[in-house]
Amino acid sequence: MTESDNGHSQVSQSDESEWVRQSSGLEPIDAPDSSIPNVLTRLGLDNSALSPAITEDQLRQALTDAEWSVRAAAVQALGKRGERTSLEPLISALSDENAFVRAAAVRALGTLQEEVPIDRLVMALQDSEWRVRTAAALSLGALGNRAPVEPLVTALRDEDESVRVAAASALGMLKEKTAIEALRIALGDPEWRVREAAVLAMREMGTYAPVEPLVNALSDVDTSVREASELALKQTHPDIFSRLFPDVWPQRNVDSGPDEKE
Amino acid sequence: MPTSGTNKYQDDQCLLAWLAIDLDRHFVDLVSLYERRLRAYVLDIIGNPLDAEEVIQDVLEHVYYALKGYPVERIRTLKLRAWLYTITKNLCYNYCKKAELPVQLSLDVSEGDSPLLEIEADRSQEPEEAFERMERLHEIEQAVQELPRFCREIVRLRLLEGFSHQEIADLLNQPIGTVKVYVHRGLALLAEKLHHLQEQETVLQ
Question: Under an 8 A CB cutoff, do A35 and B54 touch?
Fold first, then answer.
């Protein structure tokens, strides 16, 4: 099989894989004029690749397909089965040669609230591809206080910006106070998205959020960071916010606090 | 629940509200609404369609993961268009840097040998007049694509995307005065190009 991670499959379709596709109800997606189908396939959001009546055995079989898009769709479908699916095929997919399939496996495992193998998600933070590490950080964050803090703190220093953003967001989801110092350091990140995510994560700490870094972030060079810090400060320390912005308080509409997070 | 099609959202705030409720379900709508515009913007910067295709897919993937990590109230308060273009611009620049490609566009006002700098500010024909005569958007887009690389991005943002001078300044990290100068000069050059095209059409007719 020859295929790249850029989403364009270059597979010569064997009879065997063709049979698997026909029998499983999964269809590969050709290189499109628009990016939309390929993007949705990458993210596992393309429901049209699946037959509604597909069985778990057919999905397992599809995991051996030559096309990465078929394998990714199968992983996604297995994940949607929730606790009804067995972990083994999803864990195996974490070792798939294609990063989109591995990322799909990480996202799928992250939805299995009770059974999720946390150690495998932590291992995925070391994957060679940013999208897998990003998905792993977000999946760990979604686990709440069951997720370990230290690997996510380490991920704040990842070479890839999106991974650092996801790690900061995940630490916010964990609402773990011990991460505050690491988030404070992340506020010095050269990338605005990381600084913004760190501010929003601090906001999740409620009244434990340190005031000084949030106030400093009000004068960040980036608009998004400034907006996020205003949001955070208003919700974590409304008294200070009202002193800093007496003219807009309480009219300014910065809605719902951390407890309303979905 | 919005109905089918990309016109189901009254505005970006409406789309953001739905994205905040169910990102996985409504992300396709964001992609449908913005993919074409972002692709054109990427092409302006990258130049090569094949590279641009790779970058636009990466951009949309990054956008998804970024939204996935946001609290719902942050999604609701996003300035979606400016946010999308900022992410796109950053990823394009990173791509060019990594691939050792020249960034197609620059706001460096020290480009003294630029032909745009020689265009008189008091042109007798206002750019807006020329735009009004061009009825088809794709013709304008085509003309924008043919602008010199260093003003293409700004003209697209101002004319086709409707960004304010301040929004462009924020996006490109440039002083607003510099942006205004380049908008004016870029639009003037575009007007000249469109006027020329119209004259050609008249001759052909």
Answer: no
